[in-house]
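Entry for the shared binder. Reason: the reviewer on the internal report wants the predicted structure included alongside the sequence.
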Amino acid sequence: MIGTAGNGEAIIRLENIVKHFGGATALSGASLTVVRGSIHGLVGQNGAGKSTLIKLIAGLHRPDEGRLEIDGRSYDRLTPHLAEELGIHFIHQDRLLVPTFTVGEALFLGRELRFPGTPFLDRGAMRRKSAEVLERYFGLALPHSALIADLSAAEKQIVQITRALIANPKVLVFDEPTAALVRREADLLFQLIRRLSSEGVTILYISHYLGEIADLCDTVTVLRNGRDVATLPVAKTSAAEIGALMVNRDIGELYPKPAVTPGEVLLEVDNLALADRFDAVSFSLRKGEVLGFTGLVGSGAKEVVRTLFGLDRPTGGTVSVKGETVFCADPAAATDRHLALVPEDRRRDGVALDLSVTENTTLASLDRFSHGLIDRGAERRQTEDLVRRLQIKTDSVDALVKTLSGGNQQKVAIAKWLSRQSEIYLLDEPTTGVDIAAKVEIYRLIGELAERGAVVLVLSSDIEELLGVTDRVLVFFRGRVTRQFISSETSPDEVLADVTGAYETLRHAG
């Protein structure tokens, strides 16, 4: 292993951990040392062993071999209850909260405050305690009676964090905490994490976003193939070096964009408008072009994508496909015009988790395989071809999509539209929550779509990613396109100035 975890006192120490599941080995001698009071990053590709390691700390799995030490004391195994008693709490990506519970019920579930010597709940004390923590760390008040189901992603995360803070944690484990957050919400989360660290809380931070690791963490451990391959000081390590260790190869060519000569205009949008969302949006896309959209939440960029696919109805303007003005009143009309949408939340909207890879792949194109009865052989051959082309990692085309990694689920969502033989691809945050190797494969796929003459519109809040995979970028600000950039001639800082409105402020001031 490369590097060292530092010379401070360890609050978590796992040494040479081995864990098997049947015939598969998830961990093959992995070690992790987290220093008290530090912000420690944990990274690795999907399947590298991160989730298994975290579940061992949470007490959900027992190691087959190796040593597990918390706060200087060795344990054969932990249980979830013991982990909490030791002060270890988890903030999960999937916001593991009961949707029908109120905020108050969720905050104190299993740890309800009672009047001394009685079985009766002290609801007043619980309200005061939660209000105190919410005000101290977040400067806000959440209604105690509000339902979890009615909260935003950021508010659900606040409930999770508040629940942990009420218990005075020693260690907080954040598992992909920004996957469902916008940039502003993520920045507020980072401020909170730094504050907690300054107050002595140890942070273990798991993320696919190497930029977050570089900005936030003191130390990072890299897992690969079930082992730790490096523990390094973040201040002396670049994101590119961390990424190279994750995939065991040079990722300098992160954006494998081919050179494509644009063809005829395939999609043209003229003065498109949606009341109170966006206005006077115009652009065109030629065959082989990749266009980027970016902007803050509420800028109108996402709503334009939704409108193009028929999810929202425009209040003005026109959309033309191959020179013919079309009206996409609903997604069915959009798919008939060869439009395809890969949504941001793939698990909810992009794939059917309880269907197989084959069923998902042909879901939008069943008419191609049906002549009264579905031609299962042709359906299977089409799926197997796309699995090979997209390098989808699956045991079988009959495997349920929920058993695949996030990156492979995303590729199945794209395969569905390739089977449909779509020509206009609308990709909404296509690399959210996938590891760096899967991102590179998705970038390669975007380039292949352009090479075969499709047009691709990529909406992303990752500006560096946009500039790497697109030909042009349109910046949205308060419902309008404020600028267009040539990707190869533009720096991320220039785009960021427009995204945040700095350029508009200067322009009006001048």
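Summary line for the report: The first helix runs from residue 50 to 58.
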